[in-house]
């Protein structure tokens, strides 16, 4: 076994030990095929008021501009599918990924440990770890590294576990053996996600108009939710899982084994009136280390009021 193969085996072994379900590797090259679609997506205004997506265009396409001397982009999958779906008909709902503690911190800690283990076993490695926090086209890199394909809802789909997982990346200056991209799109003629989206946010297969997405409206948008979306929110007050819930590939989802993703006990007992009367004290208690803190109590109240009106 040569050094490249041995280093690749060590990386995948350590990643699995840390609980990552899948690991894929791609060469750190320019994403030539993504340049025009990204430019068009921005030109269409699909980023809405997420102006940060307009920044660092070159860095989004070239990982070597994020890490000097980068040779490999490592994509990692971490399951968050819950044992119990808390979204009930007629009740206010939050996306499954936000049930437990904020994934950014949990996965970033694992990535830091992964780099530390690689340095211990291989030697000095320079690079950076990313968890949905920098101009990295994570789904495109995951596809290039053989972890799945980009579905019609624009999410990465994996044949073994669907789409209820987080993606994370290491961009490092270590030469590794690249994996083979998945050549086939396994969505076929299915349009369930397109048909189910109540705000018609899926502009075309694989392209989402972010400015219409319920996740954007309930989290990213800081202004008032436009009245055009009245009656279309289907009781989602933080994020949305509709396009994933209807996806046939998610029948393969299995409950995660991450203790920190389990919901706060009080979250399971929340009824609509509890949400409407949620105090700052209880909000801070339930969502103290949760991704829900991104929208703040005021944002959550705004979303609830919009649905109630």
Automatic annotation (TrEMBL):
Family: Belongs to the QueG family.
The organism of origin for this protein: Persicobacter diffluens
NCBIfam families documented for this protein: tRNA epoxyqueuosine(34) reductase QueG (TIGR00276)
Catalytic machinery residues: 132
Binding site for tRNA: 222
Superkingdom per UniProt: Bacteria
UniProt GO BP: tRNA queuosine(34) biosynthetic process
Annotated gene: queG
Cofactor(s) needed by this chain: cob(II)alamin; [4Fe-4S] cluster
Protein known as: Epoxyqueuosine reductase
């Amino acid at each position: 076994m040569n050094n490249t193969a041995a280093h690749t085996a060590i990386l995948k072994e350590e990643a699995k030990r840390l609980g990552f379900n899948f690991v894929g590797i791609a060469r750190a090259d320019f994403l030539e095929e993504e340049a025009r679609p990204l430019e068009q997506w921005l030109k269409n205004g699909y980023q809405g008021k997420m102006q940060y997506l307009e920044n660092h265009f070159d860095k989004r396409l070239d990982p070597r501009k994020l890490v000097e001397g980068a040779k490999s982009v490592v994509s990692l999958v971490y399951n968050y599918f819950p044992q119990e779906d808390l979204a009930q008909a007629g009740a206010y709902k939050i996306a499954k990924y936000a049930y437990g503690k904020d994934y950014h911190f949990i996965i970033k800690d694992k990535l830091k440990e992964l780099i530390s283990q690689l340095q211990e076993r291989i030697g000095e490695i320079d690079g950076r770890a990313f968890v949905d926090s920098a101009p990295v086209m994570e789904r495109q890199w995951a596809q290039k590294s053989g972890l799945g394909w980009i579905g019609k809802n624009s999410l990465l789909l994996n044949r073994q576990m669907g789409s209820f997982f987080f993606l994370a990346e290491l961009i490092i200056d270590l030469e590794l053996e690249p994996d083979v991209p998945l050549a086939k799109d396994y969505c076929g003629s299915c349009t369930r996600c397109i048909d189910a989206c109540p705000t018609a946010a899926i502009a075309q297969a694989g392209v989402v108009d972010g400015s219409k997405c319920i996740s954007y409206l309930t989290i990213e948008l800081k202004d008032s939710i436009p009245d055009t979306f009245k009656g279309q929110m289907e009781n989602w007050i933080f994020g949305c899982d509709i396009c994933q819930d209807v996806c046939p590939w998610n029948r393969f989802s299995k409950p995660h084994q991450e203790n920190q993703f389990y919901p706060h006990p009080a979250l399971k007992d929340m009824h609509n009136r509890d949400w409407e009367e949620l105090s700052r004290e209880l909000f801070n208690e339930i969502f103290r280390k949760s991704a829900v803190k991104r929208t703040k109590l005021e944002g959550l109240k705004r979303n609830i009021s919009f649905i109630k009106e």
